[in-house]
Write a structure and sequence with these properties.
- The chain is α/β, with parallel strands linked by helices.
- It has helices spanning about 1-10, 50-55, 75-85, 105-110, 130-135, 145-155; strands spanning about 20-25, 25-35, 95, 115-120, 135-140.
- Strands 2-1-3-4-5 form a 5-stranded mixed β-sheet.
- About 35% of the residues are buried.
């Protein structure tokens, strides 16, 4: 989960920073973060008009998702596996993500055979009925546990991890 937290730091989306990691047998297969596709102007530089409208308060969360240019973190991790020829859906693959995936990312994960999501937070556009029907286990980790391990990363350094 710490790797997903680190991946989200690369996000160029203006509205939400998300990180995802696909793991099998305790080995990291792929990471992803949300943002515009390679070669496209970054979201925070005006690359995604939908996110710009969200920031201006002209669109509600979840509205016009089909107009968003940003790939979701989970989709990017899945595409990363495809690009590298990694078979992520073999039994035992786990998707670690900072939010429970949206409907589209859930469908992709189910399609490749991922049966377990480990998440830090819920997401308003998640289809829990679909997850249940597909037999996908959802584990929500207490954020305080991640904060503990994040703090451990900095032990011995003159750095203090500040949490909200």
């Amino acid at each position: 989960m710490l790797q997903a937290e680190l991946a989200k730091l690369r996000s160029n989306c203006m509205t939400r920073h998300v990180g995802a990691v696909i793991v099998r047998n305790n080995r990291q297969l792929a990471t992803g973060y949300n943002g515009t596709p390679p070669g496209i102007k970054n979201c925070f530089e005006g690359g995604c008009k939908r996110c710009e409208l969200r920031m201006q308060g002209k669109l509600e969360s979840g509205a016009s998702l089909d107009r968003c240019l940003c790939n979701h973190a989970e989709a990017n991790a899945i595409m990363h596996c495809a690009i590298l020829g990694i078979e992520a859906g073999i039994e035992g693959a786990i998707l670690y993500t900072t939010f429970v995936p949206c409907l589209e990312c859930t469908k992709m994960a189910i399609t490749i055979g991922i049966k377990k999501f480990v998440c830090l937070d819920s997401y308003p556009e998640t289809d829990y009925d679909l997850l249940k029907e597909a037999g996908v286990e959802i584990v929500e980790i207490n954020k305080e546990k991640i904060q503990y391990w994040a703090q451990k990363l900095f032990e011995g350094y003159d750095v203090k991890v500040v949490t909200k």
